Every structure is written in structure tokens, then in C-alpha cells.
């Protein structure tokens, strides 16, 4: 699709924790790995795990961004750690605020790559004490898949994010909102949604490592019920994700026939709708439902017949359908279905027994809505390809 940037689609080392620069970056390392590193610094065996737990607590419960802040560690150890390792944040490059309260934040990692994340506050119930919100986190810079209605899909995959890069998005968001130490009760970031740039199940090991740390009760303490992972349908990894993480699952379905889904979500050519539905039926969601995301594209996938087929497809599966009005971007080549069409579609699906809320677009005015994210990582490089 963008031949001059094709080599960048190569997958980098999936075991890297992140892009912290020359001195190893400790964000994204589990407590055991931290303890091993501490033993390497001469911390005696018996104390390494205890010190690792302290560091973990400082990083993910207190939000420390330097070893100097970790005052429960001996000064000598803090100096040693500062000399050999880093725990700093990626650079905060830009922020934009939507009239609806949504914020989009741009981060730059040590290797110069940019990523966007979005905070979507839920203020409908009013009053700061009941304030909640979702943080939409990216898993890759760009995306290797090319869903035709998605702006991120027009970027090449620049690189996978390491576990540290993924976690750093949560840490920076908490910094911005002043939400340290991890609150016990209401939080402005109450939910994490892996719905930013990239396909999380094509960077599974890093996403897993990051979410395991995010779920640790001694740190960021997000319950798996408050985390949703959205996938375009990387079928073999859906089962693994259910077994190892057990977070909420969202599927970007968008079409009920293979011929149309092959076009809109090309990964469907590898794992078709029947295979995808089988994986969803096997997903251990317990009392929670699988969410199906369905973008409403005028005249493409929004007929009454398709709504009825959707109900047939979901039969027997505890599910909810999120109808997403198409969010426009330059040269997209699609239009959003009319509000009346979306209403009619929703009614048919609801009558079929499936809740089908229409998702109110959030942050459209700052290009922060679903499928609008795209960073300068590519824009910069593409510019440099223009002959002087
Ligand atoms: N790559 C993952 C995570 C992205 S989640 C996935 O595809 O599931 C973002 C959601 O927004 C997905 O359901 C995606 O299909 C949808 N989306 C993409 N572009 C969109 C657009 N222009 N308007 C509305 N929704 C869009
Ligand atoms: Fe990638 Fe998801 Fe966009 Fe498809 S919808 S191109 S998988 S980010």
C-alpha cells in the first residue's frame, strides 16, 4: 500500500521491554526480573526480591520517575541504580483537548518514535467524586493491518511497543491527571482499553507483560474486569489471551459476510468469520459479554438484512454490539451512515436480543476518536522522501 515504507513493517524483538535509551530501562520488567538485576548489582539473594518489590511499589503505586525519589532504598543502591538504569518517562510532546472533555496526548520515546493515547472522561453522572474515565492505550507505532476505514491502517507498522512503552502511557496519563498514588476508590482513569494505535494481538508478549503489571494489586491495580482488549481477529491469540489474561474481549467485526469483511478487515482472509466466532464462543468471559464493534459505513454494511444476519451470527453467544459511527479522516472514501439508519440498525439488533448502544463519538474535533489516530512518526519520514 505504501511501498516506500514497506521495510519498516518488520517485527522488532518482541522481548524488549521498551525504548528507554542506552542505559537499560526498567519499566516493563516484572518483580522477578528486577530482583535478578539487583542481584547483579550485588544486592544479596535474600534481599533482592524485597528491594524489587519496593522499586515496583515506587514505580507503579507511587508514580516515581527517578531512583532518587525511592527513599526507602539505601542511598548507595539508589546511586548504583541511577548510574546503570533508567526509569524516566518518555517525552511528553503535545496535548489537545476536545470540547467534550476528551484529551489526546502525544508521547515521544527515546528512539524518536511517537505514539498517541486518549483519555475519555466519563462525567455524565456529574460531580468529581463519581468521575470515571477510560484511557485508550496504543500497542504499536502504526499497524501492519490495513483495514480500509481506519486512519491508523494507512500508517506502516513502524515498530511494536515494548511492555515499558505500553505501561509508560498509563504512567504519563496518571501524571497528567495527578492521580498518584494509585487511588483506592474512584479514579479518573478507571478503565484501560487497548484500542489505540496498532493490533494488540500482533504484539501479544509485550501487551501481556504490560497488562500483567497493570493488574498487579501492589501497583497500578487495574482489575481484569476494567481492561478491554480489542482485536481485529488474530484468532490463535484470542484463546491465549483468554487463558493468560482473562481481560474483556472486543472484536472489530464490521461485516457479517466474508466477502465484505475480506475487503474491510483484510486479516479476515486469514481467519474468516466462522473461525473468529468459534474463538469468541470459546473465550472464557464468565459473566461478562464479548463486545462486537461495528463501524457504521453508509451504504456499505448498514442494511436491515445485515442487522438481521448479525443477530443470527451471534446466536447463543452472550454478546453486546457497539455501533460506532464512522469517524472521518482525510481521503477516507467512506461516509458515516445517517443517524436514522444507525437507529434502525440498532433497533433490529436489540430486538434480536443483543444490546447495541450507539457509541457517541468522542474527541472527533481533535482527531482522537476511534480509528483517527495517526502520529508524526510516519508524517516526518514521508516528508523526507519528497525530493528537495
Ligand atoms: N487494532 C485493534 C484495536 C483498535 S480499536 C482493532 O482493530 O480492534 C479501534 C476500534 O475503532 C476498532 O474497532 C476499529 O475497527 C475501529 N475503527 C477504526 N477506524 C475507525 C473509524 N474511522 N471510525 C470508527 N471506528 C473505527
Ligand atoms: Fe490496525 Fe485496528 Fe486500524 Fe485495523 S482497525 S488497521 S487492526 S488499528
SSE layout and pairing:
Layout (H helix, E strand, L loop, with lengths): L30 H10 L4 H18 L12 H10 L6 E7 L5 E6 L5 E9 L9 E5 L3 E2 L17 E2 L2 H15 L13 E4 L9 H12 L11 E5 L3 H10 L3 E5 L5 H7 L8 H10 L7 E7 L7 H11 L4 E7 L13 H13 L24 H9 L4
Helix pairs in contact: 1-2, 4-5, 6-8, 9-10
The structure holds S-adenosyl-L-homocysteine and iron/sulfur cluster.
How many distinct helices?
11
Number of strands: 11
Integer average pLDDT = 89
Strand arrangement across the biggest beta sheet: 1-2-3-4-7-8-9-10-11
Bound molecules: S-adenosyl-L-homocysteine, iron/sulfur cluster
Order of helices and strands: HHHEEEEEEHEHEHEHHEHEHH
> How large a portion of the residues is in β-strands, by DSSP E?
15-25%
Tell me the helix content.
25-40%
Q: Major sheet: size, sense and barrel closure?
A: 9 strands, mixed
Backbone structural class: alpha/beta
Roughly how many Å apart are the termini?
A: 24 Å
Rg result: 21 Å
Which outline best applies? elongated
Unreliable spans:
1-16, 125-130, 379-388
How would you briefly describe this protein structure?
The chain is an alpha/beta fold.
Structure in words:
With 388 residues, this protein is α/β, with parallel strands linked by helices. Helix content is 32%, strand content 15%. It contains eleven helices and eleven strands. Strands 1-2-3-4-7-8-9-10-11 form a nine-stranded mixed β-sheet, with helices on one face. A two-stranded antiparallel ribbon has the order 5-6. It starts with 30 loop residues before the first helix and ends with a helix. The model is unreliable at 1-16, 125-130 and 379-388 (pLDDT under 50). Iron/sulfur cluster binds at residues 143, 145, 147, 150, 152-153, 198-199, 232, 252, 371. Residues 143, 145, 147, 150, 152-153, 198-199, 232, 252, 371 line the site of iron/sulfur cluster.
